[in-house]
Amino acid sequence: FRFDIAKELVRVIASPNHNEDVIFPLIENKYPKDGGSGEFVVAVPRLKLPGISADVIAKNLESKFTPDARFTSIKADGVFLKFVYNPAYLRDRLIPRVLSQAETYGQNSSGYGKVSLVEFSSPNIAKPFHVGHLRSTIIGNFIENTLRANGWTTVTINYLGDWGKQYGLLAVGYNKYGHAAKLEADPIRHLFEVYVAINNDASEDASIHDDARNYFARMEEGDPVSLELWQKFVDLSIVKYREIYSRVNVGFDVYSGESKYSAKLMRGVVDRLKELDLLKLDQGAQIVDLNAYKLGGAIIEKSNGGMMYLSRDVAAAIARQKEYKFDNMVYVVGAQQDFHFKQLFKILELMGLPWAEKCQHVNFGMIKSKDGNMSTRKGTVVFLEDILDAVQESMLAVMKKNEAKFAQIVNPTAVADTIGITGIMIQDMGARRNKDYEFNWDRMLAFEGDTGPYLQYAHTRLCSIERKADFEVGPHVNVSVLTEPVAAALVDCIAMYPDVVREAGVQLEPCTIVSYAFRLSHAVSNCVEALYVMNQPQEIAAARLALYKAARITLGNALRALGIVPLERM
Ligand code: ARG
To answer: Where is the signal peptide (predicted)?
Structure first.
């Protein structure tokens, strides 16, 4: 909101015929540490105004300025312009606006008409859902929500690992160890058991590998009998995945795994690369030589005719562009695959595909732990479901300590689940995604400090104020009695949210929104401790309630953008 006024102001005082669209994204809005002072700073060089040096322009703008209802002063400070706006102006416009926009407050239409494909999670059937998949799920979901809040149309894809020789091995294993009832009941776990067992056998008996290879060869040839079993594994696994994802509030528009890219399609890619003279024979394998770009030799087809993970990604990208005509495609995958995506994008570029530059790898660091897995107090977990169960259990134990409050909660298990999951998500998204972090059960589930439970607590506190007030407020409320500095600070913070959404949509860094949510929650806490709604004159009570409602809406929107369900009670 403030960003809008700044834009308007700079446009007016800078140059009457300057293109607004140029100025708009260039304003650097530095938030004062103690919100509410009405100050913010614009760096003149970022305005890219034509003419003399930036400090002269700043001085010039300062001298042209006359105070109005919105801005009380402008001071030039070197290349910076220090604006002081009128907090009353902001307050009177902002609160009604937030109340009427409600769940859409903070959204913008900058991505309107554009399609973004967001590929994330992408676990491998029959293998553990490891921490990399967990991070991809959380961050990918955030990216989807944030792009949508910026007006984009999104299509979310789960690129399941569901093809390759290992699925031949899995089928051989299933024929030996499989159990139809177990498969139905919990396909992910059962297939993992089978996979571990047959891998064990195969390490002693090499002929099992031949069987697996033959089985997979039949799958590739389209043999219906071999495919039937495999299809069953995939279908049942997807049912189970859907169930688990819904617990973390994640859904996919399409499950389009590696298997969707047929041998024929891959052959087409190889032929095309040949046609473009991009392939070269290297020890029997077909490679694209990327040494000129310090990306080594990328194997496309092995000497035995087998295709690679990379070749499949080339085929998939081309097929996706055909199908969705995307304006941008995001791959949310750990930084261990940086090199893979560099190779992929370079190959698409060398193929002369104009949309190659629209592909983006959004990477992230690792979750560190002793053995590379997440460990609960009870031991190592390899399944997402176990992690979710473990946080739910811990949260329930914490909640039970306050018996009176616990008795009031309608569905304590669901609430515990949500708080626990919020804990995981906030821990995951709290720092820049490229940073590694340690999975810390105690810290992420604590109610003090910058944790998920703390954010949920801030939200429920605001909900409880609204519940306890015996009246409602709407957008026409008069908020002019809110003159206290703590209220101005909260207004200031609420006003930042649209800028935060915009920035998050560009950087695709969840911590942008997480840090904001904490900042807002602290401003809320300062305010509710000082300004009560209960037992106040009606006019004051209504204005404060309106402020808290605006804060609750904003915090709720921020949490939803992160993929978190804001709680009303806990
Ligand atoms: N299934 C892969 C893995 O678990 C991740 C897939 C990433 N996406 C891609 N288009 N390569 O490592």
So the answer is: none
> In testing the pocket of ligand 1, which one of 139, 333, 339, 364 has its CB within 8 Å of the most ligand atoms?
333
Q: Flag whether 30 is in a domain.
A: yes
Residues 299 and 290: beta-carbon distance below 8 Å:
no
Query: What is the average per-residue pLDDT within 488-516?
Result: 92
Domain end position, chosen among 85, 101, 130:
85
**Nearest protein Cα to ligand 1, atom 11:** 313
* Shared-domain flag, residues 504 and 399: yes
Say whether both 79 and 187 belong to one domain.
Answer: no
Same domain, 389 and 483: yes
Domain-ending residue, one of 85, 114, 133: 85
> Can you state the percent helix, strand and coil of the chain, rounding each to 5?
60, 10, 30
Tokens of 20: 């607004």
ipTM above 0.95, yes or no: yes
Q: How confident is the model at residue 246 (pLDDT cuts 50, 70, 90)?
A: very high
Number of domains the chain is built from: 3
Ligand 1 interacting residues, C-beta cut-off 6 A:
119, 122, 124, 159, 161, 313, 331, 333
CA of 304 to the centre of ligand 1 (A): 23
Which residue out of 18, 82, 127, 342 is catalytically annotated?
127
How far does residue 269's CA lie from ligand 1's centre (Å)? Answer: 19
Closest protein CA for atom 12 of ligand 1: 123
Helices 510-530 and 412-429 pack at an angle, to 10 degrees, of: 120
Question: Is the same domain home to 416 and 548?
Answer: yes
Residue 522 annotated to the active site: no
Average pLDDT for residues 405-416, to the nearest whole number? Answer: 92
Contact 237, 125 (CB under 8 A): yes
| Residue ranges making up the domain that contains 470 | 383-561
Catalytic entry in 7, 133, 459, 549 = 133
- In the residue annotation, 405 being an active-site residue is answered as no
Is 124 within a domain? no
Q: In the annotation, is 127 catalytic?
A: yes
Q: How far is the CA of 236 from the centre of ligand 1 (A)?
A: 20
Whole-angstrom Cα distance, residue 462 to residue 459? 5
Q: What are phi and psi of 233, to 5 degrees?
A: -60, -45
What is the arrangement of strands in the sheet containing 297-301, beginning at the earlier edge strand?
279-282, 285-289, 297-301
Q: Is residue 142 part of a domain?
A: no
Tokens at residue 522, please?
A: 């602290």
Among residues of the chain, what percentage have pLDDT more than 90? 70
pLDDT at 30 over 70: no
245 Cα to the center of ligand 1, angstroms: 17
548 and 403 share a domain?
Answer: yes
Among the atoms of ligand 1, which is closest to the Cα of residue 133? 4
- What pTM does this model have? 0.91
Residue 180 lies in a domain: yes
Are 173 and 72 part of one and the same domain?
no
Q: Please choose from 159, 255, 261, 364 the residue to mutate so as to test ligand 1's pocket, defined by most ligand atoms within 8 A of CB.
A: 159
Which residue's C-alpha comes closest to atom 6 of ligand 1? Answer: 122
What's the CATH code of the domain at 525?
1.10.730.10
Task: Determine the number of helices (DSSP H) and then strands (DSSP E) in the chain.
Answer: 21, 15
